[in-house]
Design a protein that fits this description.
This protein is an alpha/beta fold. It has one domain: Rossmann fold (3-Layer(aba) Sandwich), CATH 3.40.50.150. Helices cover 44% and strands 24% of the residues. A seven-stranded mixed β-sheet has the order 3-2-1-4-5-7-6, with helices on both faces. Strand 2, helix 5 and strand 3 form a beta-alpha-beta unit. Helix 3 crosses helix 4. The longest helix is centred in the N-terminal third of the chain and has 18 residues. It is globular, with a radius of gyration of 17 Å.
Length: 228
């Protein structure tokens, strides 16, 4: 699947009201568990140093990292100004460096970050190879990248059952809006082979691993591990 414009333009213009709806969706119990689990994994992986999250959205993963490890310097870059403002409001009383920008080209110094992560937005990058190479540039030697992404060849029957279970105690609005957003994402996401092909064109081509995992009770996720 090769689209020149995969969705970055739409998110750059993401209106404030849409960001507030997104904030509600990420507050669903199963979604919070997903972000909490990723945050715990990152907290245990990095221990200390600088962490960058790409496309941090409402800031849920960063909230979890901060909660579980106070020794990590938090940075974030998101293409949407509405999301930057939303995340700043959600992450309170903690020093974080959140900016609006595109991971294709950043102002960060070479070899700056110990760990870089992203959850559920890699599939939207218009120039994924260029973006991966920029990540390679700003990542320290022996640094790690963890991309948590959905993939297209998931078990649809299992997904439908698990999603219904996740939403059973939520209000009617979230029961309607939640499935719409996640199904939209799954319609645009890559197949595992496509992800591999993209990585093989980048500077990470010789050091990566892709593992199918369950997050938020949904078996639609892959953990993509890259190393410099």
């Amino acid at each position: 699947m090769n689209k020149k414009n995969r969705g970055e333009k739409g998110f750059k213009k993401f209106p404030k009201q849409a960001a507030l709806i997104y904030d509600k969706i990420t507050s669903v119990k199963a979604q919070r568990k997903l972000y909490e689990d990723i945050g715990i994994f990152l907290s245990n992986s990095i221990k200390s140093g600088k962490l960058l999250e790409i496309g941090f959205g409402a800031g849920r993963v960063l909230e979890s990292v901060i909660k579980n490890n106070k020794n990590i310097e938090i940075y974030g870059i998101d293409i949407s100004n509405a999301m930057v403002e939303l995340a700043k409001g959600n992450i309170k009383d903690t020093k974080v460096n959140l900016i609006e920008g595109n991971i294709e080209k950043t102002e960060y110094k070479d070899n700056f970050f110990d760990t870089i992560t992203c959850t559920g937005s890699f599939y939207l990058w218009d120039k994924p190879v260029k973006s991966l190479n920029e990540i390679f540039r700003i990542l320290k030697k022996d640094g790690n990248v963890y991309l948590f992404e959905t993939y297209k060849e998931y078990d649809k029957k299992d997904f439908k059952k698990s999603l219904k279970e996740n939403l059973k105690n939520e209000n009617i609005i979230l029961k309607l809006i939640g499935p719409f957003f996640i199904k939209k994402q799954l319609s645009l996401t890559y197949r595992i082979k496509e992800i591999e092909d993209i990585i093989k064109l980048s500077n990470f081509k010789n050091n990566f691993n892709i593992e199918k995992i369950k997050l938020g009770n949904l078996s639609i996720w892959a953990k993509i591990s890259l190393k410099k």
